Amino acid sequence: MSHFAILTDVTRCIGCEACVEACQKTNGTGSDVPHRWQPDPNALSSSRWTTLAQTREGRFVRVHCRHCLDPSCVAACPVGAMRRTPEGAVVYDAEICMGCRYCMIACPFRMTRYEWSSAVPKVRKCILCYQKVMSGELEQPACTAACPSKATVFGEREALLAEARRRLAAEPARYIQHIWGEHEVGGTSVLYLSDVSLDEAGWPRTLGDRPRPRLAREVLGTVPWTFAGVAAACYGVHWTLERRRKVAAAEHPPEEDNGGER
Q1: CA 2, chain centre distance (Å)
Q2: Cβ-contact 213, 70 below 8 angstroms
Q3: Which fold has domain 4-216?
């Protein structure tokens, strides 16, 4: 498979949380330990890498790392603990992670979580069961294998995009005509179809289609020119003020000192 991806059809999800249980068991994350500062005990955490959010319409939406095609977390990690694999999964090396949390700040979806209760805390998140799939231990991520209604399926990204377009065309009245993750922030490897807005499940409308790292590089690329422009402007102001001072001094020379006599 050239590019790992997951397609979640919100209209098919029954909210059973089989995906959550399978993820915890397979990755050995342990049981949920909600923190007092965690408003929702079922929210993502260092031990809960995938969860379900419920929309105001009563729909259940899987929430986990989107595995961006141009991931902000990878660009922000100062030690290279985060990396995007050739297969599209965004994984991390816990041995390298120094717990700086830059990835948490950079993620446009706020999907990474911190081990607040650990003496040596690290960042934790969904890795699409990457190592187990690549080694052949699993044929697909535990979450998609466990889904009884096939609401979330694993496959190659282009094939899943084609399947999503087929469903939209076949049942236009059933879905909002949009594939979440196809273009947002440059595209993600986790795709969604839904009949309700997914704003409440981490897809804010303000995301835009441009990858955040590319936008950051473009902005940072202007810094040298900005400094040069500011320096030139400051020099221009200084030259103008100095020129005015000299002209004023020439036009109004100081009176000669006659020993204090007038």
Answers
A1: 22
A2: yes
A3: Alpha-Beta Plaits (3.30.70)
Report field, pTM of the whole predicted structure over 0.85: no
Closest CA to 189 of 219, 223, 216, 157: 157
Exposed, middle or buried, 88 (CB in 10 Å: 0-12/13-18/19+)? buried
List the chain pLDDT tens, one digit each, 262 residues: 689 999 999 999 999 999 999 999 999 988 776 666 666 667 888 889 999 999 989 999 999 999 999 999 999 999 999 999 999 999 999 889 888 989 999 999 989 888 877 778 888 999 999 999 999 999 999 999 999 999 999 999 999 999 999 999 999 999 999 999 999 999 999 999 999 999 877 787 788 888 755 544 443 344 454 555 676 667 677 677 777 777 777 767 666 555 555 4
